[in-house]
Design a protein that fits this description.
- By secondary structure, this protein is an all-alpha fold.
- It has one domain.
- About 75% of the residues lie in helices and about 0% in strands.
- It has six helices and no strands.
């Protein structure tokens, strides 16, 4: 059974669109406190670590376990802001965060499957995902886009516009 490439990309696109809306609509309209200004780039860094692992490591049994651990830490880490969000977010932002909490592990699973597809034999993954083809390119573009977003978050909220912060965490 082949896994269509587009099916592995859909969660990445959904996550990126939801993150962009959260950042450009909700975060900019309410501002971010110190906790979120530091925490959101760190959230992004946990995803960069997962993708970077997939790009740099062969999927041996130990490396797959390490990827699963990195992904699990990322999924738990992104929930750390909820005590702040409970006080500061609108119902719409809460709903969007719920969607992001659902999509986050699915996107990390897609990244893991793309990684495994680069190294797997025929039968499970399309041949176009194997080797240095589009599967590697998808991971590389995702890595770069996520890293750039993390740098943007750190720069925008902590260097360019620290005055956009609100009082409190």
């Amino acid at each position: 059974m082949l896994i269509p490439t587009w099916l592995l990309i859909v969660p990445l696109v959904v996550q990126a669109a939801a993150m962009a809306f959260d950042e450009l609509h909700y975060h900019r309209s309410r501002g971010l406190g110190a906790w979120e200004r530091l925490g959101h780039p760190l959230d992004t860094l946990t995803v960069v670590a997962c993708i970077g692992w997939a790009l740099c490591m062969q999927p041996t049994a130990e490396h797959v376990v390490a990827y699963i651990a990195l992904a699990a830490v990322s999924c738990l880490f992104v929930t750390k802001d909820e005590f702040v969000h409970a006080r500061r977010c609108s119902a719409g932002e809460h709903w969007l965060h719920a969607l992001l909490f659902i999509v986050h592990p699915v996107a990390l699973a897609s990244i893991g499957l793309l990684w495994l597809g680069l190294h797997a034999g025929a039968g499970v993954f399309p041949s176009r995902l194997q080797g240095n083809g589009p599967g590697w390119g998808i991971l590389f573009v995702q890595f770069c886009a996520t890293a750039v977003f993390g740098v943007y978050q750190a720069w925008y909220w902590n260097l360019r516009w620290p005055s956009r912060a609100r009082l409190g965490p």
